[in-house]
Amino acid sequence: MNVTLFPPTSTNLVVGSSHCGKTFFIQHIVKNFDLFYQTRAHVDYESRKEEEEFGTIENDELNLVRVYVIHCNSKTPQWPAQGIIQPNMKLIQLDIDEYDMNLVAPNSIVVFDDVSALHESIKQTVNVGAHHIPLLSVFVVSQNIVANVHYELVKLCHRIIFCCNSRGSIDAAKLVIQRLISDKETRKQLTTILGFCESEQTKFLLEINNLATYPTPFYGFSHLEHIKSNDTSFPFCLAYPILPPAPEKKNSVALHQQSGMEQPYQTLALLQNKKSLPPNTLVVLPLESLDLRKKETETTKCTPENAWDSVTSIMNEDIDMAFKPAKWRDCKMLARSILTNPSLCLSRDGKFMWLKHQYPPHKVNVLNFIKDVTRPVAPNESNRHWRRYKPIVAVLLAKGTPVYLIRNRLVSKK
Question: Of 350, 349, 348, 358, whose CA–CA distance to 392 is shortest?
Fold first, then answer.
């Protein structure tokens, strides 16, 4: 399934207290434009009469994306063009009194920054301009929507983006869910998602009014700040489907179920030392990152250095996924002793080890070994189960592995 994070003509209300990252988040979306906007609104340029200020749009300007930043507070700083605006973009900054919706070019992004009073031009742009110009997106940035006139925008905008690191934003989200969602099960699911996003201190994009031309199968998205162009780490965001996901097909996809992730997606830091994700959560990956990883896998030569890096990376990720954070230090110290011990051999995937001069080799699962020898023995446990570990523990201790790491007394006894 392919996912369009910001479909054309979408209107977005961004809610959060002062200095919680609202404007920075929108700048992040603009900076990574190609990942957030896959399609554009259809415009009949031949029949459209352009205003004199813009003149006739030439062929080389058809792909130009104009970003209008409308400052509703005279004290808000100007957006820096460097590092945010891409070569195919043009930044236009105006005060709210200078703004005229009729002069906005089609396929533009309009941002109303730091809205304190609901100006009529804002309502006109959200309610009329987004669809009829048409625009790519409208963002209305507000500190609060509870008990003020901004609540009117809740029923006009397609989506609300809550900054879940803000107490006021959490209260606003609870109010919206309570007032606008009538189904009890949906409210329960959204409350679970909101609680998870609050614990993660991330942004939660709630789909509140569905776009007719781009109906969505999701309650919303979170962790959008992790979607970055040319990111060498792990670009991703989370999607929360309205219905349980269909069985995965074998064709190319951009969605992966959290419960079925495989390498290299086990490096997802979100799953380390975190609560379990809400039910049916899906991981959204940029297609370009999948293509880049595939190309890297195809072109990387199998050198000893690459093989070593692969084994150490796999062992490190396996420990992170299998053990609680309190045990990471001891488990990784033991793993380092295994990796550097010349008397031990490891499989290419780092899953099994055996004694170097043992024939036939008795392979031992590395993760099971670390788990078993770093825990105390339970009462009445038999010595027979640990007999195969004793030779490996002996060569580790002989090469200086700290004794306190081996907490299982049955494998350290001679």
Answer: 358
The residue extents of the domains of the chain are 10-284, 304-412
Q: CA 119 to CA 95: how far, in whole Å?
A: 12
| Cα→Cα distances 101→70, 139, 252, Å | 11, 14, 41
User: Closest Cα to residue 95, out of 71, 111, 125?
Assistant: 71
Tokens of residue 333, six digits: 């110290």
pLDDT of residue 264: 35
**Token match 């595939």: residue?**
294
Residues in contact with 82: Cβ distance below 8 Å, sequence separation at least 6, in sequence order: none
Alpha-helical regions (H) of 341-385:
366-373
- Rounded Cα–Cα distance for residues 290 and 26 (Å): 25
Average pLDDT over residues 324-329: 87
Alpha-carbon distances, residue 127 vs 26, 90, 101, 322 (angstroms): 20, 24, 12, 50
Q: What is the pLDDT of residues 236-287, one digit of tens each?
A: 889 998 865 445 443 333 444 433 333 333 334 444 444 568 888 888 887 7
Q: Which amino acid is at 330?
A: D
